[in-house]
Amino acid sequence: MNKFTKEVMSVGEMASGAKLTVPVYSFKSENNSAASVYIQANMHGAEVQGNAVIFQLLELLQHCDLRGNITLVPYANPVACNHKNGEYTLGRFDPITGVNWNRMYHFNQSMIQPFAEQYLDANEADIRDDFKRFLVTELDQKLAHNIWGITTGQRIAYQLQRLAHQADIVLDLHTGPISSKHLYCPEYAQASAEYFDIEHTILIDNDFGGAMDEATFCPWWSLQQAFEKLGRNFTMGKGAFKRESFTVELGSQEQIDLDVAKEDASSILAYLHSQGVIDNQQYQPKAMTRYACYLKDYKAIYSPMGGMVDYLAEFGKPLAAGEPLARILRMDNYGDGEALHNVSVDEDVIPILHFASASVNQGTELYKVFCNYFKL
Amino acid sequence: MNKFTKEVMSVGEMASGAKLTVPVYSFKSENNSAASVYIQANMHGAEVQGNAVIFQLLELLQHCDLRGNITLVPYANPVACNHKNGEYTLGRFDPITGVNWNRMYHFNQSMIQPFAEQYLDANEADIRDDFKRFLVTELDQKLAHNIWGITTGQRIAYQLQRLAHQADIVLDLHTGPISSKHLYCPEYAQASAEYFDIEHTILIDNDFGGAMDEATFCPWWSLQQAFEKLGRNFTMGKGAFKRESFTVELGSQEQIDLDVAKEDASSILAYLHSQGVIDNQQYQPKAMTRYACYLKDYKAIYSPMGGMVDYLAEFGKPLAAGEPLARILRMDNYGDGEALHNVSVDEDVIPILHFASASVNQGTELYKVFCNYFKL
Amino acid sequence: MNKFTKEVMSVGEMASGAKLTVPVYSFKSENNSAASVYIQANMHGAEVQGNAVIFQLLELLQHCDLRGNITLVPYANPVACNHKNGEYTLGRFDPITGVNWNRMYHFNQSMIQPFAEQYLDANEADIRDDFKRFLVTELDQKLAHNIWGITTGQRIAYQLQRLAHQADIVLDLHTGPISSKHLYCPEYAQASAEYFDIEHTILIDNDFGGAMDEATFCPWWSLQQAFEKLGRNFTMGKGAFKRESFTVELGSQEQIDLDVAKEDASSILAYLHSQGVIDNQQYQPKAMTRYACYLKDYKAIYSPMGGMVDYLAEFGKPLAAGEPLARILRMDNYGDGEALHNVSVDEDVIPILHFASASVNQGTELYKVFCNYFKL
Amino acid sequence: MNKFTKEVMSVGEMASGAKLTVPVYSFKSENNSAASVYIQANMHGAEVQGNAVIFQLLELLQHCDLRGNITLVPYANPVACNHKNGEYTLGRFDPITGVNWNRMYHFNQSMIQPFAEQYLDANEADIRDDFKRFLVTELDQKLAHNIWGITTGQRIAYQLQRLAHQADIVLDLHTGPISSKHLYCPEYAQASAEYFDIEHTILIDNDFGGAMDEATFCPWWSLQQAFEKLGRNFTMGKGAFKRESFTVELGSQEQIDLDVAKEDASSILAYLHSQGVIDNQQYQPKAMTRYACYLKDYKAIYSPMGGMVDYLAEFGKPLAAGEPLARILRMDNYGDGEALHNVSVDEDVIPILHFASASVNQGTELYKVFCNYFKL
């Protein structure tokens, strides 16, 4: 049975001086021949199911044949996961500033070109090791004493990213509001999407928006492109550039289900088996039709009016153009106006998630859908 | 086809001067021989399904054989139903003061005894009419210009209560957080609980706590008791004391479902048919086993620890003493403590509802359950 | 120099498992002849100045001549003091339930009469010691394992109240929203109000509403009254019934000022000197005109309209009937209505505090004022 | 006496169907020879003082000698100004999404180059008129029916920006949290900063971040630069490129003071007189030392720890390197650590504003200060 170690990382302090900490679990493989892995959960406060998945991974990994090191971090953002607003958890942003907790990771594009020039003739192992060290050192400098300070969210994000940069594979476990399972996957790693038991994949480009997945693959993708321009070709996802980062959306927020978590853990182990991180034939992806679309085609529909929404469209099932996604109830219009209003779009879509509440303002995001989708 | 009228009642003003209004729908019966009815929904912001039920009642009542007047008020509390906090609606209390919106209705116990003394020998119709007028006038005085003013919630509550006091039957449509359907019913009206398609009923005493149902039956019940002490006997629920008030809990908050709303509307029509308010044989209660308990036996279980909850117990299904209601995940204890903790109680219960989120503090209400329950 | 001890009391757990703790500082007097004292601060999240006062008390008490034991508890409610909502601290209530944090203390009125009967002929020292023990034991039983649990706020309140019940004098340090200094004082302890450097005192009756001050003097006052009915007379504030509890309102919330805190600490020391708890002549109350009113005459004015408020009335200065307290700006009415609206009352008042924000709904509490005030 | 017209613009709908509207006041000059002006207030919910300034401007402008048209919009964002969270107004961001309300204006950089090419030889008046029309049309298209919809904040922002684009001078009235007065001014308009009675000016570059001021000057500045690259030179601030946009920070949020508002209105009239929009010699800027710094030198200091802050540094007064800005109280450390911690920086600064609350998390923004400042 594999042993893990547990450390406690301090990520913040509240007004009373209360220290907020994050547990960090690590498995070290004896024959560390394979890629190393970093998995975190609960960066957004309400997105708690990933903690249960990490629970099940810890249970299962103790019985796996490990070939690579694995680090697991539940409760990644205790500021957010402890922040109640009424009965619910204020999920997505710092309650003081409004900044989305998953938009505060770091990537310094300006360091790519000089690095590529300096390492143009270096061997592949040196490139890999030095660039990794470079990424970690940059964060260490930002975290170290700095007279102007950094924000609450940066402090949390940078400490997590330090751990993530030391791994080759990164899985950031999230959920949607009310949502089906889906996967954010870099375009170059599309083949890996077929190892997860997730029917819908969004393929993303090399465009840094501040999220953990981007923050861990964009530096390498940018470096590969910089080398390419200088005439040296590497393939993303291979050799020194064996980096894969995914945001795994596990379903709906505000819920813990340990049984579903066990299925999701198995799905992740199937992917890790495919990458050689564990050697356990019993973890295999399920047969299913997998759909994908490009990030530009993953579109939101904003409510054309205030009202109360009866969400109609089923997740994951193609919906023909013109079919209603939702109908909006407007009792104030009953008797002298239209009390029910259908919302539809004029192209075929696959609904993936919808807003967490029936009550919406004009302009609230109602649904997110796949357009121009295709089979993987 | 019955016609209804629609009025707009102003219930508040926001900082920008925006006026908040409530639509009031009224059916007048030509042969107004039966009891009159008041139905409202959405006093708590997140409890929106009642609006859909009122939509369906408006659709159905136009085709009923009406024998009593019916007033219907959706969006009863626009301050609350428009108040978003993160993605959710801040449901239960004034965001400025914390006071529960359904604890601000009015009942002046001290006026009961003098009224009973004054009307000891009056005829029943005069007692009914004058007491009704008395209740309405008291509210009018509070609402009229008053140099010290009244609170935001009182202004809303009193205006709704003015309408309710003019009816004989009051239905206040609510929902639980995540919840099965259940009914709050005054003990004397227990027989009426069997006309609703609701399996679980809480029987409540003559104890005013500020809610709409109590605010509309406690004055009458107190008056009946005062007369009784003075030697004149009336029966609650009969003749001049034909008053029934229910809080109807329609299921879970933050959801609108128009199809389920149609079923709930039919259930309400079955009750109204039983009371002679409509004369439509097609509305009959469904056969089902109905359970009840007294309010003192409707108990909350508070979380013994902070953590993330996997709610296990099914709503409405008796649970044996010692069986787990929920298990609480505590990842921070994984590896060096207990990561999973079962919550149970040492008596048989029927779970009715649970908290809206998986994330709880130590002391958050987890479940509400029936103890010492019995069949109706 | 007096030494103090420091303990850490655990008062709650958040969803991540984070433990919330409160520091408890204690001075033990060698010749413990005088009354013992309990002082706490920051039960409401935004009311932070009391922490600075406790800082200054800790600095000063080390150099005093102590005659009684003193316990000091800053950050009494870390759940509340860490709860940000936007830039501000959500002050007054549990963000999940809306219940005011200072309405959750315990007092079981039904235990008074049996105790008085049982101790009717007991000596005074036994009455004092056994009743104190009785009060503490009741809380211990509530806090000990209880299958149904207690709420988040009760757990905090009961642990603080356990400490307070062991003292003879209780000071609960609060602030208003935007406020002058004022004092809540039980009617029987009116003489003590003159030892604080606070110009305005509200005299309160023996009516338990859930607050810390009431929770620590009402049991003793009720007991004294029960004995009186049984024919045995004690004087509140003397001998075994030497109990004084005050809520000290230090000014405005959301502010820390260490210099002002030093003045407030001196004022508290002047009171403690007057009670013989310290023997330090240098701490004397300042000469000032002190006004008081009864709690029933401490009245709120609720806004007659939504709008934006220019608060005009100065705190602490008598305002003649009809003079404006505030004017409300309603730009939406400019040009076709009244853009400015004065708020006044028709009796003489002393304004004590006003709402924390210029933006109000119709029905928001604007000012609190003394009516029927008199000089102490 | 000049007459104004008043219109009501609908900017949003809430869940209850409540419509949110904004009053729009317009003065039309008979001899419309001068620049036209757009002034708005209260885009951030808690920043209410600008409404009082618009009140005073409406009072004063009726008696001015008008040479240009002036549009004034108070309560620009009723969603935000009506959103209470506890006692305060949730100021800066959409409570559902966290997006800063003043980061949702529109600027399409990609349209600049084609326009410049097309109008390379056009006359100046055509460039001005057609570009203005172009900017407005783009917004009209976004606001018109669009099957995917736009966000709540975009709908508000675009409607305001439509009005602003039609003017030559734009003043967006804001406040800081707790703050001195200061001015955001485009670098090319530096000379105009001396007409405001505001001691501190931040000079900003042509870098669009989503705010109203940038949204109205960046298109013109970008166009001027595009023409310059094509060989045709215009001067920003002159002729067709007479565009000035300022964010005027009026002091602290959550306050209305009509007397101070009158001073601020006079200051704005002094600026308008300097631009020829009114011809009233009595409005002249006050003599004062005015300081400025570039936006890159307007720096935030983030709290190095959680705690409660005694803000020490005075606004507007140069503070030597190493002098404390604030001291942070940490009562949990009293007796066995450092209870007071000074915060300072190692260069000379002018403090401009600080955080709204004493309670801060590690990483909360404490102060904003001018570095490398200079006299205007």
What can you see in these coordinates?
- The structure is a homotetramer of 376-residue chains.
- Chain A has 376 residues and is an alpha+beta fold.
- Chain A folds into two domains: 4-295, Aminopeptidase; 298-370, OB fold (Dihydrolipoamide Acetyltransferase, E2P) (Beta Barrel).
- The first copy, chain A, has seven helices and 20 strands.
- Chain A has helices at residues 49-61, 78-81, 112-118, 124-143, 152-165, 212-229, 258-274, and strands at 4-13, 19-27, 37-41, 70-73, 84-85, 88-89, 169-176, 178-179, 182-186, 200-204, 244-252, 291-294, 298-302, 307-311, 326-329, 340-343, 350-354, 359-360, 365-370, 374-375.
- In chain A, helix 1 (49-61) links the parallel strand 3 (37-41) and strand 4.
- Chain A starts with a strand and ends with a strand.
- The mean pLDDT of chain A is 96.
Oligomerization category of the chains in this entry: homotetramer
Can you identify the CATH class of the largest domain in chain A? Answer: Alpha Beta
CATH fold category name of the largest domain in chain A? Aminopeptidase
Main structural class of chain A: alpha+beta
Amount of helix of chain A: 10-25%
End-to-end CA span of chain A: 37 Å
What are its keywords?
homotetramer; 376 residues; alpha+beta; Aminopeptidase; OB fold (Dihydrolipoamide Acetyltransferase, E2P); 2 domains; 10-stranded mixed sheet; 4-stranded antiparallel sheet; 7 helices; 25% helix
